[in-house]
Amino acid sequence: MPSQVSTHISIPYFLQRGGELGELIRNYNWAETKLGALETWPQILKNTLSIILKSKFPMLIWWGPDLILFYNDAFKPYLERNGKHPIALGQRGEDGWPEVWPIIKPLIDRVMSGGESTWSEDQLIPVYRDNKLEEVYWTFSYSGLTNEDGLIEGVLVTCAETTAQLQAYKEVNNAKNELEFAIESAELGTWDLDPVTNRFVGNTRLKNWFGIAADKEIELSEATDLIEASDRQRVLSAISKALTYESGGSYDIEYAIINPQTLIPRYVRAKGKALFNQDKQPIKFSGILQDISEERKAAKELKRNRAQLEQTYEQVRLSKEAAMLGTFDMDLESGNLEWDARCRVLFGINHNDKVTYEKDFVLGLHPEDRDRILDVINKSFIKSISNGDYDVEYRTVGAEDQKVRWIRAKGKVYFDEYDKPIRFIGSVLDITDQKLDQIRLMESAEKQARLAAIVSTSDDTIVSKTLQGIITSWNIAAERMFGYTEAEIIGKHISLIIPPSRLKEEDFIISQIASGNKIDHFETIRIAKDGHEIPLSISVSPITDETGKVIGASKIARDISAQWAAQETARRYTERLEIMNLMVETISEELDLNKILQKITDATTELTGAQFGAFFYNNIDEKGESFLLYTLSGAPKEMFEKFGMPRNTAVFHPTFSGQGVVRVDDITKDSRYGKSSPHFGMPKGHLPVVSYLAVPVVSRSGTVIGGLFFGHPEPGKFTKEHESLVVSIAAQSAIGIDNAKLYEQVKLLNDKKDEFIGLASHELKTPLTSINGYLQILSRLKMDDKQQRFVDKTLQQVQKLTTLVNDLLDISKIEAGQLQLNIQKFDLKELLNDVIELIQHSNENYQITLNTTVENCIVNADSQRIEQVLLNLLTNAIKYSPGANTIELSLTCTAHEVQVDVKDFGLGIPENKIGQIFSRFYRVEDLNPTISGLGIGLYLACEIVTRHNGRLWVNSEIDVGSTFHFTLPLN
């Protein structure tokens, strides 16, 4: 069926008042099926559904190529009995009705193919319901459902079940035939009394019983006179009562007839029925007479036997109930099977319906036992094999409760004179509890054996002990691990293998186990017989007795030496990596050569565990033998200085020549040791060296810078790992040393450059002053306009050159730390106006404005240096605004500081360049390469503002402009 959807939608017209099925159709998600959403259904389907859903007559629809089923509430009861409602709704016909599909599918195909409607009356169509296949008769019609194009898309079915009517008709016919046959077969007498005429008619047999001639007609009184006197009045009263309307006309009585010829009494049973007219008057009284003489005789005998049987049965019943036995009885000729209530319980049957061998017994057997039991039963039916004896155990699976039970069945097969089995009787006993106990015992024994085998052969150490710590089991793996045999250790206390420092662990373990808790993966150390310690991971579980009481502990131990070693290796690797990273970071950040070498020496000495370490700088003297001690760790320099400079001996030579690493467990036993005079070994008083490690430090160019040397007074202290570690650090050290040496060289060149700039500036200033003086004298002489213009131009260029020289001098002073500030009070607003007027005079094309709300702004600063800052900022603003003509200045004053802003509308500065523009000699070349300058103006401005404890920064946007801001503190 489709999945349900929300019911909060409007009801389509064709489902309105459609009952339960209309609601089900509306509430399912047909969009997931081939039919699609409700609104897309064909009109003929909608209209037909509207009709059948409102109909009180059972109707259904087969729709589409898959013959999808729809039905109404009137048809629903037929589906509920077989459990198909509501699953059948929306199902393919073949899926939902497999048991009848071969019958109804041809009828559907005939309608779908030709459009011919069909009518079937009292048609047999078996239906699977109430868990069985029943013969059901139907009267139904099939009609095609035609769409707008005249094509048949479905079949409308109207139907009614006629099983009951047919059955009733058959029963009437059968009853009539059976009655006639029964009368003859049962040797019954028949009689008919006319209540009006009192005329009595009987058949030949009846007249013979009464001793009356067959052809004689008699009155009722003649017949009643032949009834035994003691019964006569009772019979007459019964006849009179039966002829009254209020009695219902029923007549049933037993009495004796005395034959007048033989005088032998014949016991009969008379049964009859009186019919009445509309006036409630009797018009007919008919019946039968049955000879029950033999029955009366047998009844007396039966009564006597029954009393005996009931006594015996009661004894058997009490015995059977006490033993909780069930009984079975099977007629092998008819196949009828009888089970008592207890037998039904053992097969999980709650109903009282008739049981069958195939359905209830065979299917009730456990699938794993079925074939075996059927084979035993079949052999029991062969007298020569079994003599009819039947004794077996098997499992049943309850038909209704699905419970599995173990059964002990005993029985006997009875045979006829031809050894054909004719009856099978016996008893069944529930032995589930006994069987489960037996299985548990077997499983327990098997488990114990398997556990013992596992413990014996396991690679894991398995030990058990009492709560007092006494060892009770010790497997082979424990012998291998600890060295104690089972005979040596059983009965000993567990503390025998526990280090004294860890005895409290055992108290903790026992307390947990005694509380019923389990301990998993507890890492600890135990001691073997030879005394060596073994790292272990142990898991401990409580051992309980049959009452659940904890009586001991089972311990599984695994050697985790390899795991601990791996963890230690990982720890050392991590430590090494951290040190390497730290060394790389230190070397990359530090440019002082002495500090780099000392840090390298200290770190490698600590890493290798050396008693002392040293770095010898490779400085070759004229003889090719002089090495300068550069750094030392683990011992004072004085310990080496008294021995003089190290010499290029056979031991040192491989390191300083770059041949490779030298690592010796005992240098005093090395073939190169003690070959050089005058000491022939270590000089007296030298730090004792036995373990020796030397690693060359080689620059990127391949030059041996020097060597790292390590010593220890004990042999075998340096490992391959130490060697690898120092080699790695040495490689990084070489890079740092190269960088430090380059830094020293750059610093030296920079100092010389600053010295040259300062010297050149001083040398240039004197002639510039003279040139400026002569030009001023010339400018005051009388000249024509052209001459005057040339002199003015020359004065301007000399002034620019003078400013440049002064800036260079200021840089020299800054670098030398000699820039002096003349701090005094002045009005910053007035200074701003003066600078604007000065710049405006020489740049008439630019409009420079000052925006401020303050009357004045008194600051403590060097006015000449602040003016220099303003001139640099304004000059740059004009220089880098070739397409603009406006510069805006602003001045704000707070309680703590003043701020000046210089805003231009020029080229702007790229964001990635802003962080560098305050560096010395830096120019943003890609803005406009034709703009002149050395890149020192902003550097000087920043240095001046910073030395006033102020701040200088910029905000800029390409093609919009830049705003430079600087602040000065008021205090």
From TrEMBL:
CDD domains: HATPase, HisKA, PAS
Pfam families named in the record: GAF_2, HATPase_c, HisKA, PAS, PAS_3
Recorded coiled-coil stretches: 292-319
Signal peptide interval: none
Domain of life: Bacteria
InterPro entries, per database record: GAF, GAF-like_dom_sf, HATPase_C_sf, HATPase_dom, His_kinase_dom, HisK_dim/P_dom, HisK_dim/P_sf, PAC
Domain named Histidine kinase: residues: 759-971
Domain PAS: residue ranges: 447-517
Gene Ontology MF annotations: phosphorelay sensor kinase activity
Catalytic activity from the UniProt record: ATP + protein L-histidine = ADP + protein N-phospho-L-histidine
Keywords for this protein: Coiled coil, Kinase, Membrane, Phosphoprotein, Transferase, Two-component regulatory system
Official protein name in the record: histidine kinase
Domain PAC: 251-304, 390-443, 520-572
SUPFAM superfamilies hit by this protein: ATPase domain of HSP90 chaperone/DNA topoisomerase II/histidine kinase, GAF domain-like, Homodimeric domain of signal transducing histidine kinase, PYP-like sensor domain (PAS domain)
EC number assigned by the record: 2.7.13.3
Gene3D superfamilies per record: 1.10.287.130, 2.10.70.100, 3.30.450.40, Histidine kinase-like ATPase, C-terminal domain, PAS domain
Biological processes per GO annotation: regulation of DNA-templated transcription
